[in-house]
Design brief:
The complex is a heterodimer of chains A (470) and B (118).
Chain A: H1 6-11, H2 14-19, E1 24-28, E2 34-37, H3 39-45, H4 49-52, H5 57-60, H6 71-78, E3 82-89, E4 95-106, E5 112-121, H7 123-135, E6 137-138, E7 141-142, H8 146-160, E8 165-168, H9 175-185, E9 193-197, H10 203-211, E10 212-213, E11 225-226, H11 228-231, E12 236-240, H12 247-259, E13 261-262, E14 271-272, E15 276-281, H13 285-291, H14 296-302, E16 305-308, H15 318-334, E17 340-341, H16 343-351, H17 357-371, E18 376-377, H18 384-387, H19 389-396, H20 399-406, H21 412-419, H22 427-441, H23 446-453, H24 457-466
Parallel strand pairs in A: 8-15, 8-16, 9-12, 12-15, 17-18
Antiparallel strand pairs in A: 1-2, 1-5, 3-4, 4-5, 6-7, 10-11, 13-14
Helix pairs in contact in A: 8-9, 15-17, 19-22, 22-23, 23-24
Chain B: E1 3-10, E2 13-14, E3 23-29, E4 35-42, H1 48-57, E5 62-64, H2 70-78, E6 82-84, H3 91-99, E7 107-108, E8 113-114
Chain lengths: 470, 118
């Protein structure tokens, strides 16, 4: 093996040595002014070493970290190497993503000689990262779980047709987002996207709002007013909470779906409207049909393309992905630099069943990002209701699990209520579950169960009676 | 002709990056080259988009700044705003040189040289 002699070592020129290194290297003095730069750095930054020497590095490197979060200053302060990701803007006005590695340079006696910065161009890595991300992002929606991937696959196909779409799913699963995506991807994208909440207006107003009215149709109708269907001509109408649409209006909507024509309130002439209908509901329309609360013929006309959005608790692996996604969003919005979630915070968030689904998770992350003053989100930054461990543990259990474990004490009629799912939990059902869980754990021993719950025996007896458990 | 100049600043220097500027100096110059009004403004948010919006809203004719991304440079140029980019050094000196008609893009006022740029 070749050895470098003492003489050869002295003859080595630093500039020539660092020129052989394929990453950009910039050496600074203790005042953070550039002293040495290699050829790769010259090429990356677009500045020659002659111009750069003696100039503060923030004017040469021009990274996003320089002004507020200078890694070179951190290295001196912390006395350890620092690795960061950021970007630089070069003289060709290109923004280049870069991985910085900064360390101190000392002589053989440990005296500070300067600071060495290496800048690694990570454009390719970032590009690849974007491509991978593109696979689990669709419009504003994010999801890696098989159920979401299936949805992302089918959305572009559905968008190209003109068939009516019925979107179902629990509250907060993203029904509005899906409706918007369908419109945006459809050939009707240049037309209007009109959203109407069927549960927000009383029946009389809703009819006028949907189909319009003619002058004199009712007191106060001083002029003709076009309905939302007319306004959405060549576009899409999105009827949210279609389950709340009153029965008389269901008939009118059915007529429109058949003939593509509307008759304004008080009018006699029909008006053509070329509109694609997208409807959504969190209700079980099929059950409503059976109860007579929703017209069967309308249900089948709307149910041409059915999209069932999975609740968050059934989207394997998506909670972590969405947590990071929302944190990035709120970091940008609130101009924060929160790096992530602590292990304990992840544990709390992963065990929660999210009855409010993605919307609830988003709100939780927004709250945490607001409250957090540290570099990562800790359990104490999460809303208080998540931290109630007793509730959390019971709620985190799968409904099926609860049924099995509480079947000893739960009468058959009540099991259906438990089976309704975690999404429908209110305080009363939560309390009932707590009692059943405690009884199940203590094999039906009420004294032990009361102790476990922190109640007196009579309180437990009273509450069991209230919940019809005895 | 009157001029309205905006300089992106950081301490006593021109901020090294346009998109990370938190403070600006605006200078109103009359047709004889005299400074009519100058004021520094601390920006509520740090964003290149907001800064571009402010530049247009304030009727700025020249921007003196450090590194700027192509997208924002082209936008400002398209809006007929003169951009003196990649200027390094104290902003007071840069303003003096600009008023004397001696400032050019890429000027390194710490070394009295020019950076090569495209």
């Amino acid at each position: 093996m070749m050895k470098i002699s003492q003489q050869n070592r002295e003859d080595l020129d630093v500039n020539e040595v660092i020129d052989t290194i394929p990453v950009a290297v910039v050496i600074l003095d203790a005042d953070f002014c550039v002293q040495v730069m290699n050829r790769t750095a010259e090429a990356m930054l677009g500045i020659s070493r002659q111009q750069a020497v003696g100039i503060p590095c923030r004017h040469i490197v021009r990274s996003n970290l320089c002004l507020r979060d200078c890694p070179a200053r951190e290295v001196l302060r912390e006395e350890r190497a620092v690795r960061r990701q950021g970007n630089v803007i070069n003289c060709s006005r290109q923004k280049i993503p870069v991985a910085f590695h900064v360390d101190v340079l000392r002589d053989s006696k440990g005296r500070l000689l300067g600071i060495v910065e290496t800048l690694e161009d990570i454009s390719l890595v970032e590009e690849l990262d974007k491509k991978i991300h593109a696979r689990h992002e669709f419009g504003d929606m994010v999801g890696l779980s098989p159920k979401m991937q299936k949805l992302f696959d089918i959305l572009p196909i559905i968008s190209q047709t003109d068939s009516s779409v019925l979107i179902t799913g629990e509250t907060g699963t993203g029904k509005d987002r899906v409706a918007e995506i369908i419109h945006r991807l459809s050939p009707r994208t240049q037309g209007a996207f009109v959203k109407i909440n069927c549960g927000a207006l009383p029946e009389s107003l809703l009819e006028s709002e949907l189909f319009g009215h003619t002058r004199g149709a009712f007191t106060g109708a001083v002029r003709d007013k076009p309905g939302r269907f007319q306004l959405a001509n060549n576009g899409s109408v999105y009827l949210t909470e279609i389950g709340d649409l009153p029965l008389p209006l269901q008939v009118k909507l059915l007529t429109f779906l058949d003939d593509k024509e509307i008759i304004p309130l008080g009018g006699t002439k029909t008006i053509k409207a070329d509109v694609r209908l997208i409807a959504a509901t969190h209700r079980d329309l099929h059950a409503m049909v059976q109860k007579g609360a929703f017209r069967e013929d309308l249900f089948y006309r709307l149910n041409v393309v059915r999209l069932e959005l999975p609740p968050l608790r059934e989207r394997d692996g998506d909670i972590r992905l969405l947590m990071e996604h929302f944190l990035n969003q709120f970091n940008q919005l609130f101009q924060k630099k929160i790096k992530g979630f602590s292990r304990k915070a992840i544990e709390v968030l992963s065990r929660y069943p999210y009855p409010g689904n993605v919307r609830e998770l988003k709100n939780i992350v927004e709250y945490a990002a607001n409250v957090c003053r540290e570099s990562s989100i800790q359990p104490e930054h999460l809303p208080d209701y998540l931290k109630n461990s007793a509730l959390r543990e019971v709620v985190a259990m799968k409904p099926a699990d609860l049924i099995t474990r509480s079947s000893v004490v739960a009468p058959p009629a009540e099991q259906t209520a438990v089976q309704a799912g975690v999404g429908a939990l209110d305080w009363r059902s939560m309390e009932r579950r707590l009692i059943m869980e405690a009884l199940s754990q203590t094999s039906g021993n009420r004294t032990k169960a009361a102790k476990l719950l922190g109640w007196g025996r009579s309180t437990l007896w009273r509450k069991m009676k209230q919940h019809k458990l005895i | 002709m009157t001029e309205k100049i905006l300089i992106t600043i950081w301490g006593d220097e021109i901020a090294s990056r346009f998109d990370l500027t938190s403070e600006i100096l605006t200078v109103h110059v009359d047709s004889h080259g005299g400074v009519v009004e100058s004021r520094t403004v601390v920006l509520p948010t740090i964003s290149a988009e907001d800064l571009c919006h402010l530049i247009l809203k304030e009727g700025i004719t020249t921007v003196i700044c450090g590194a700027i991304e192509e997208e924002y440079y082209q936008y400002l140029v398209w809006k007929k705003i003169k951009v003196m980019e990649c200027v390094i050094g104290p902003y007071v000196k840069a303003l003096e040189l600009f008023l004397a008609g001696k400032l050019a893009p890429g000027a390194n006022l710490m070394k009295s040289t020019f950076l090569e740029h495209t």
